[in-house]
Design goal:
The chain is α+β, with helices and mostly antiparallel strands. Helices cover 41% and strands 20% of the residues.
């Protein structure tokens, strides 16, 4: 049966000579895998661009709950990014966020609120022209709500670190800024140095590790630090 759905590409792997299997977060069915034939051939080389990580798509798909891999009937860009792939700071943030989503996004059913949050967060990052240096911090704090462990305030983080014997500098100045980030939206200016920003990111990642099984290392973190330093 055919279904229309918006979607966010998480990643893809090569399959056979010219095909791919794409991991996609759909509005209607959650995380799903789709096989797309011929996109890596000379005739399909332009189509592969649609499957770049975090691309926003409009799909018509064949979906069968009994199958693990589905097929796409129609595909087009839902929102062509204007700056995200070309601005090195934004693309580094996007690479980092994509790795986070790949580790944590397990939803296999419809969750319109979560989908809208992710979809419009990416559009905001693409469209904003300045003051997006805290975007990834605020994103992680907001996204944690959907994962079920959003901190209400910095003191909650302190208490959980104490319970799990996590040791990292997190004094009153850091806690004050963390509280501002927890209450902020993407347009709220929270002033801090690059060093402090990187340290607060470490705190948030450690907080994620307490709650996400097999969270592991974030390979894109070093690139993000270097680009935003």
């Amino acid at each position: 049966m055919l279904h229309k759905t918006r979607a966010i590409v998480i990643n893809y792997i090569r399959y056979r000579e010219t095909s791919i299997i794409a991991k996609v977060y759909t509005e209607k069915f959650g995380v799903q895998s789709f096989i797309e034939n011929g996109v890596r051939s000379s005739k399909g080389k332009n189509k592969i661009a649609l499957f770049q990580p975090l691309s926003l798509l409009d799909l018509v798909v064949y979906h069968d709950e009994k199958k693990e891999i589905h097929r796409i009937s129609e595909i087009k860009s839902g929102f062509p990014f204007r700056t995200l792939p070309y601005d090195i700071s934004k693309s580094s943030i996007a690479m980092f966020l994509d790795e986070i989503l790949n580790k944590t996004l397990k939803e296999h059913s419809e969750n319109t609120v979560l989908f809208d949050f992710l979809y419009h967060s990416l559009i905001f990052l693409d469209e904003t022209e300045e003051h997006f240096e805290n975007f990834h911090l605020i994103f992680l704090l907001k996204y944690a709500f959907f994962l079920g462990f959003s901190p209400q305030n910095a003191n909650e983080i302190v208490e959980q670190f104490r319970d799990y014997n996590v040791t990292i500098p997190f004094d009153n100045d850091y806690q004050r800024l963390m509280n501002q980030l927890i209450m902020a939206d993407y347009q709220t200016p929270v002033l801090m140095s690059r060093g402090v920003r990187n340290h607060l990111l470490e705190v948030i990642i450690l907080f994620y590790r307490l709650h996400v099984e097999e969270f592991g290392e974030i390979r894109s973190l070093q690139v993000l630090r270097e680009v935003l330093s």
